[in-house]
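Q: How would the C-alpha cells look for this protein?
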Amino acid sequence: MTNIRDITILSAIAEYKFLTTKQLSILCQRSIPVIRRRLRDLSEKGLVTIQERVFGEKVGRKEYVIIITDKGLKTLKDKGILSLYVNYITNKTSEIVFIEHDLLVNWFLIHLILIERINQRFKVFLLTKSSHHLTQGDADHLLTMEYFSNSDKSGNPHTIIPDGVFTITDTKSKKVLLFFLEVDMGTETLASPTQSSGDIRQKVNNYQMLFKHEIYERYNNIANCKLNGFRLLFLTNTLNRMELICRLVQSMPPSDFIWVTDQQRVFYKGAAANIWARGGQYKKKLESILTERLAFRNFLL
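A: Here is the predicted structure in C-alpha cell form.
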C-alpha cells in the first residue's frame, strides 16, 4: 500500500521528469536520510528506478538520479493525479542524455519554490514540460508549447517549448508577472549564418514575436490572472556564456523584456536577488525580477 508521503514523492518525480535525492529532499521538505529510505522501498516495489551518475568534467561527483517507472505512473493514474499529459512523462530513461540541462532546470524551479516558502508575500504558479496536475488544453500538445505562423521569407511555422513557465504574484499589490525560462548549457549556436531554428538568435526572435502579437495572453486563463507582457529569463551554465548571450540580446532590440544570469549567481544568491542583467546589460547594475525594493537572497549553498 502506497502512503500519501510516497505519492507526494512519486508526483514530484513525475512533475520534474527526474530528480536527485537532494532535490527531492527540498521539494518534499524531508531529510535526505528519510528520502533515501523511502526511495529504497519505492525501488523495491518497482515504482522508481535509481541511477548513479557522475557530474563534472574534472573531479566528478556522484549523485543518485530518481526516475519514475511505468508502474509508478500507473499508481498516480489510479489515484486520479495524472491528467491529460501523462504521455509526456513516460519513457524518461531514454532522455537521460540531457540530464545536466534538465537538472539545472529543476534546480532553478526549486529556487522559485523557495521564494514562496521564505517570503509568503509572493505566490508562485509553476508549469514544467511534464506538468501533470492540470486538465486544460489538448492532450496531443504540451500545455506550454507555443505554435504560431511566421511572416519571414521562409513562411515556416515556429514552435517554442520553454524549459519552464511561471507566474509570481505579489499578494500585497496584486501584481502578477509572467516568466518564460530558457536554460542554456552552451551547446547551441548563438547565431548561425542561415538563421537556424535551433540557434539562440532565432529563439530570441520567436519570443519577440510572442511578445509583439500578445500570444502569451492565453496564460490569463491558465494561471487565472490578468497579464500585461512577460519576461524571458535566460539561465546560463557559465559566466562567459552569460556575457555572450547578453551581447546578442543587446544587439536585438527590443530586448528589455529579456533578463540573463548564470547558475553560480542563482546558487549563491538565489533567484530573487539582484543577479539579472536586464536587456542583456551585464555591465550595468544587476537587478531582481521582483524589483530592487523587494529583492532578497534565497540561496541553497
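The mean pLDDT is 85.

The chain has two domains: 4-82, 102-294.

Upvote if useful.
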